[in-house]
Amino acid sequence: MTSSTSAETQHLRDLARLRRVRDRIDREYAQPLDVEALARGANMSAGHLSRQFRRAYGESPYSYLLTRRIERAMALLRRGDLNVTEVCFAVGCQSLGTFSTRFTDLVGVPPSVYRARTAPATAEMPSCMSKQVTRPVRNREAQVTGPHLA
Quick one: pLDDT at residue 118? Predict the structure, then answer.
């Protein structure tokens, strides 16, 4: 086995571990998760996990976790049956202030304003559609790189 084959094999193993970490975040977003716990589960150091995750997915594991929590919070707020504090704790955030700040940074409006605006606007919309049109954008994901086709 050559060194390039060995390096490629190791790279593929690392990517598989990173996918498992990302899947765990997607599944357990409401649980108390931190980078150290995620790294232990992947048999990596926290620093190595953070560097590799950022290289593979364009953001840190913590940032990815916050995005998942905010996406879920948006869905709960659109339903309209929970108040902002209940939503904050339901998605795994421990501080209402931090939750509101991060929500506002990512979505552009505070959670209470989002709830007031979108609950009535998306009430008749199928959930799969409302999730798409209200998805938070991080790291300029939604930039159009080509001509817009209508």
Answer: 87
* Predicted confidence (pLDDT) per residue in 81-115, tens digit: 999 999 999 999 999 999 999 999 999 999 999 99
Tell me the C-alpha distance between 84 and 96, whole Å: 8
Classify each residue of 37-49 as buried b or exposed e, where b means 16 or more C-beta atoms within 10 Å of its C-beta. Answer: ebbeebebeeeeb
For 113, the token pair is 């304003």
* Contact between 88 and 96 (Cβ < 8 Å): yes
Q: Is the pLDDT of residue 42 over 80?
A: yes
pLDDT at 145: 46
Helix 3-28, helix 61-79: angle, nearest 10:
30
In terms of Cβ atoms closer than 10 Å to its own Cβ (0-12, 13-18, 19+), residue 64 is: buried
The answer to whether residues 115 and 96 touch, using CB atoms and an 8 Å cutoff, is: no
Structural contact between residues 87 and 73, judged by C-beta atoms closer than 8 angstroms:
yes
- The distance from CA 106 to its chain's CA centroid, rounded to whole angstroms, is 11
* Residue of 3, 7, 38 lying closest to 21 (CA atoms): 38
